[in-house]
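DM from R.C. (forwarded with permission)

"hey, sorry to bug you on a friday — could you get me a structure for this? deadline for the figure draft is monday and I only need the backbone to look sensible"
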Amino acid sequence: MADITESFKLKTNPFRLTPTTNPDELEWAGFKDMKDKFEKRIQRSIRIPNSTLVLNWGEYGSGKTHAARYFNKKDVLEELAKNVERVIPYSMVISLPKGKEPIFSLYTSVIDKLNIEEIRKLFSDILPSVGEYIALISSNIHIQNVLKGIFNSEIDHLDIKKYLYGNMSVSDLKSLNRHGILRMLRDDTDYSSLIAGLFSSLTFDKKKFSCIILWIDEFEDIAVLNNTSIDKTNNFIREILDNVPNNLLLFLNLTQSALISVEDLGQYIYDSVRSRIKERISFDLPSQMVFKDYLVELLTLFRDSAADSKYFPFEENVIDEIIRTQGNVSLRQFNESLSLLLELSDMDNKCPIDMDVYNEYKDDIIWQKD
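My reply, with the result:
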């Protein structure tokens, strides 16, 4: 088998069939207008103390998950913050839970990503101010004490993490009594109040983090929840937006599907949440020119050495034919066809990939849309 780097002048196959979880492998190619929308929305939240809900809408495979992971990268956020002379946001990507306790699952997903040791180190020089601020943002003394415990280095970070997960025994809880933590968290109100207080505390005065960016991916799964869980999920979103009035940017990634369409939104996203949507970013099916611009940029990012043409190892007429034959398809389906064509050509040591090569593999790489 030919070496893909030597034959195709690529570091690796750039057409991933599933989104990478390794930040170093995440790149953005093409789709400049969409990238600009996300950058402007994020930079606005970095600069201005307000809370915003954004709905990202598009078909399966249109790039919503990739956008979430790309704009969750530390270096990308550092650059955006630097451009507006502010500190970096605190960002996380979670998926909508499908179980019977959606609020506890959402809460746990946030706690999973909480690095208490790093937060304590970062906030050590402004700890008294944070403590005073926590007392102002919550009237619940218990929630106040738990929030202070997260920042308090006198409490072992593993103990407070165990407490937050609800895994602490009654006898272990006694060790936290002297810090005013007298009971476990026990209901959805506790969980949403703690998350809201945590988000507000982390962005206190925009000193350490300029804002919280929370992406909830696969939000279309709300369609498979029962009515009670749909109610709870909507209430959770409304409550954290209301209780974090400053410095929260919440993205909902929603895939149009047989279960949920634009007309169905009202069944799953209540008016109390929809009224808070400040922007809808649509992941439309790309045109031929958008596909080709994307392809050129992607190949350039993964290029290992100089190539004979900007589409190499593909000939341009092959790309045009794939787009023409497939018709109006998602970015994922386009990538899948190119990935298979590249791998088959690699296995059979055929380079460049011209019309003869394409016609040989056409039946393997082109299929009808569902």
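R.C.: lifesaver. The longest helix spans residues 227-243.
me: no worries. The first strand starts at residue 51 and ends at 59.
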